[in-house]
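Students often ask what a holo structure prediction actually looks like on paper. The answer is less mysterious than it sounds. You provide the chain, you provide the ligand, and the output is a string of discrete structure tokens encoding the 3D arrangement of the protein together with zinc ion.
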Amino acid sequence: MRLSALITAGLLLALLFKGCDYRQASLQPKALFIGMDGVQLQHYEQLGADTNLRKRLFYGKAYAGGICNRDSKQATNSGPGWITLLTGVWANKHSVISNDESLRVDPAFPSLFKRLRDALPNAYLASIVNWPPINTAYLLEDAQGNNVRESGLNDEQVTTRALEILDTTPADFTFVHFDEPDQVGHSDGFGQAYQLALRETDDRLGRLLDKVEERANKNPHEDWLVIVSTDHGRDATGKGHGGQSLSEKTIFIASNKPLNEELTEPSIPEENPGPDNLYSFAAQTSVAPTVLRHLGLALSAQWKLDGTPLLGATGVRKARDIEAAAKLSWNSDAQSAVTIYKNGQVVAHVQAHDQQWVDPQGMRQLDDYVLELGDTPVAVRTEPEKSQTCN
Ligand SMILES: [Zn+2]
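The corresponding structure tokens follow.
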């Protein structure tokens, strides 16, 4: 009797945890995304073990710039990078392919601000940026529904405003953008001034983390996710970026919460591992689906997000196309079926551990595929007419 009651209780508990995914439904989710422009991870780590990054956050290496010899290749510049972080797709979908301020995000691939506004009409959304075009160009129409949209502040003013918002508003989703490391990199390259800019940015990160902790202590029903990332790395001198070198493509994603194996356990895409196995790490597209999932939105296959979420189940990992063989490929050892969508229609169900599927119709045009395992979709766009290089 006792034993069976225990087993029943255990089963119930297991069901509860499965049903609730990684987060307790009774908690009120909040997210703060801190962007640091042009931060080279290696140099940030060289500040030593006492940074807020190393002491207070979980973090892992990631990559920007898409896959250099595939359709997702994009310049390691700020416009493409920030919009990829904020949409969860590469520039071949979001359309912000350069820093040209006449560019706007493709409404078919809206930013976090638009997706959250549509799903949560009463959410408090804020975007406070040093580099204006994020707010004043690329997301000009997209983020119209924001409660706060401020641009062209210096990093200290960005910090002050962010602290104020965290102090006095519901602050459901807040994006802040710091620019000093990028500015100093462009003027001085790597060296003492760049290290000082990184130290100052890390101090500002610390003040924001203090504020989040203070607020979470006062409001135990709030469940805070903090994400920190950068739009691109830097070239060998530290002065430039935009290309596809390992150092320009290397970025990081950090969080106050432990993230899933997509960030912590690299998984190699065998036929195209990238320089120094870079593509086995998380992609810059992972931030947006992570924030959406934390804030309670179910990730939809119809959104065609390219990124694997870093909280909850990963779904299949490293989804990719091998166009010459009309093949989709992915990494997974799951014992269940992947649903494959092509341009919004279900075209196949395949065992996840098969790790590949050949499209009987071939891959000769622009097609959007989505691979959905459980409640986690991930997308791949194929554009065979585009031939990309790694320069
Ligand atoms: Zn930048």
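Residues 367 and 382 are 5 Å apart (CA to CA).
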